[in-house]
Amino acid sequence: MTLQATTLPPLRCACSRASRDDQSAPDESGTLKIEGVSKRFKIDQGEIKVLDQIDLTVAPGEFISLIGISGCGKTTLLRLIAGLETSYEGTISIDGKRIDRPSLDRGVVFQEPRLLPWLTVEENVAFGLTGKDRKRNRAIAREHIDLVGLKGFEKFYPAQLSGGMAQRAAIARALVNRPGILLLDEPLGALDALTRIRMQKELLNIWRREKIAMVMITHDVEEAIYLGDKVVIMSSKPGRIRKVIPVGVPRPRDRDNPEFIRIKDEILGEFNLL
Ligand SMILES: Nc1ncnc2c1ncn2[C@@H]1O[C@H](COP(=O)(O)OP(=O)(O)OP(=O)(O)O)[C@@H](O)[C@H]1O
Ligand SMILES: [Mg+2]
Predict the structure, then answer these.
(1) Pocket of ligand 1, candidates 50, 84, 234: which has the most ligand atoms within 8 Å of its Cβ, to mutate?
(2) Helix or strand or coil: residue 224?
């Protein structure tokens, strides 16, 4: 099985993307803005405030790692960005347009792959494609299956895949409509340590290749630093943004780099873990 992203034919639509190598003025289209966002849930005894005054901007092509203790509201925030949850205070917008529903422009990958068990990998990946041309859909699905390193497993069913392979298929499915932003909720959380490190490298390759913004929740401090342009640290009860740490270490990042270690210590210090 190949683990490298392969060269893709130009099958897809030309969406506006900020190129990582582009030295011209940055293209701001596709900027995600979260402004003053608070979220309450109704519970038996009344209401709980889960998110409080969240402000965050995600530039096109930016990789944001989101880290915080269990229950601080990370998934809730991701669901708001995805448009899966629409009642909140404040504004979440892309290019000034308020998010009020899910959109193909925002792909979502959950902690568990959520593949349809009765469909093959290829059918699962093609499932979200809206075009009616089956041959073209199949070509697009295969292109993305290659991208995540699953070439040769197109006809496998989810039950025949390992956890890492199933998660790759889920990532391919989320990318297939060429979203401008990919939202990942602990996508590698269920994987063993070695597969996880390999998948981190692959996610980095996909991000570089696709030039899309990614917002990834993780509980793994090294993973957050390895991948993110910024690590956003959340505090809890209610969930707030406590600190945003820019990561200036050149990619691919060496975990023994002194700056990498310094950032790791800074994050652990925020959680009183040093
Ligand atoms: N639909 C809901 N109704 C009521 N409370 C909810 C609902 N969804 C989430 N909550 C509460 O909101 C808080 C934040 O939940 P959320 O799932 O966003 O946390 P999280 O940071 O993703 O945690 P974890 O790291 O464990 O996944 C929790 O206290 C949770 O109980
Ligand atoms: Mg969560």
Answers:
(1) 50
(2) helix
Burial of 31 (0-12, 13-18, 19+ CB in 10 A): buried
Alpha-carbon distance of 139 to 134, in angstroms, equals: 9
DSSP-assigned letter for residue 236 = T
Q: From the first residue on, what is the mean pLDDT of each consecutive set of 10 residues in the chain (274 residues)?
A: 34 39 56 97 91 97 97 97 95 94 93 94 93 92 92 97 94 92 93 89 92 96 98 96 97 97 96 80
- For 90-144, the DSSP string reads EEEEETTEEP-S--TTEEEE-SS----TTS-HHHHHHTT---S-HHHHHHHHHHH
* CA 254–ligand 1 middle distance (angstroms): 33
What DSSP state is assigned to residue 239?
A: B
- Sign of the CA dihedral running 43, 48, 50, 52: positive
| Residues 84 and 102: beta-carbon distance below 8 Å | yes
